[in-house]
Specification:
alpha+beta; 2 domains; 5-stranded antiparallel sheet; 3-stranded antiparallel sheet; globular
């Protein structure tokens, strides 16, 4: 009986002991779970006042913007405007006629029928790429003087704009050559090489037209005497137009070759002589108002 009581007492003591342990452990666990949860909230509130970062962004951007105006100190490049001096020097050397890309400063280097470039004029039919160098055919070299005629027909124009009796000295073609063409094709430096020469009006003996008054000009066209004297053979007088004239000009042509004006009167003084597409002199000529005939300017230049 005593053993039984003793056993019951031991069981009761064990039960009470375990109950006490549960009570102590449960609150302990709750407390340990709450404490770490409170710490992060305290840390977040403490880190929020980091407003010290705002002044950094305001300070860094504004000073860099003020540095950009300093970059616009590009007026330093303006002193390079001194380049025009060099350009003017090159234009003087470039004003000389050229043969095979080389400047010709000595007339004795040239021979009859040599082709030189001198001045510029629209010739390829593409106005967007600028004017092209004019090709000239050398006809005569006399000391430092050189007679040249354009290798191709570069324009189609009437001898005179109105139908009337007219001689070379008063015609519109002469005026156009010594004004519009001269100033369009040649720079001021190039014009210094072009001589002003006296040219005869030999009339037309085949049709009884007397000699006219001589004229003096820098740009002219040949007469029938020149055509026979300076070209060795008739085929040498045959001329084709430039590509530009083929596209926009209204030329009287036979095949690839065209007619071009001479400065003599034709069968009457309201006519002017021509070279036909076969290279022959057409002494009868045609009306001075005809605009489908070509122009081959001629010049004397001096290469001292």
């Amino acid at each position: 009986m005593k053993k039984t009581l003793t056993l019951i007492m031991a069981v009761l003591m064990l039960a009470t002991a375990t109950a006490c342990i549960k009570i102590v452990v449960d609150p302990g666990q709750f407390q340990t779970e709450n404490k770490p949860a409170e710490q992060p909230t305290a840390k977040v509130k403490y880190e929020e006042p980091k407003a010290a970062e705002e002044p950094k962004t305001a300070v860094t951007v504004k000073p860099t913007v003020t540095a950009k105006p300093a970059v616009t100190v590009k007026p330093v490049e303006q002193p390079a405007v001194t380049q025009p001096e060099d350009v003017s020097k090159t234009t003087v050397t470039n004003s000389y006629p050229r043969m095979n890309g080389e400047e010709i400063t000595d007339a004795n280097r040239l021979r009859k029928y040599d082709v030189v470039t001198f001045g510029v004029y629209e010739q390829d039919g593409n106005t967007s790429n600028g004017k092209e160098p004019i090709e000239w055919l050398v006809l005569k070299v006399s000391g430092t003087k050189v007679l040249m005629i354009t290798k191709k027909v570069i324009e189609n124009r009437p001898f005179h704009n109105k139908h009337k009796n007219i001689r070379w000295r008063e015609c519109d073609l002469r005026t156009w050559l010594n004004d519009n063409f001269l100033n369009t094709a040649f720079s001021k430096e190039e014009q210094k090489f072009i001589l002003e020469e006296t040219h005869r009006d030999i009339g037309n003996e085949f049709y009884g037209i007397d000699i006219g008054i001589d004229s003096k000009e820098r740009v002219f066209i040949l007469d029938s005497y020149d055509a026979g004297k300076f070209f060795d053979y008739k085929p040498d007088r045959i001329a084709e137009p430039t590509e530009y004239m083929k596209k926009v000009g209204k030329l009287n042509m036979i095949g690839d070759y065209c007619w071009w004006w001479l400065r003599n009167p034709g069968q009457s003084t309201d006519h002017a002589m021509l070279i036909n597409p076969h290279g022959a002199v057409f002494r009868e000529g045609d009306l001075v108002t005809m605009s489908d005939y070509g122009v081959r300017p001629a010049i004397w230049i001096d290469l001292p």
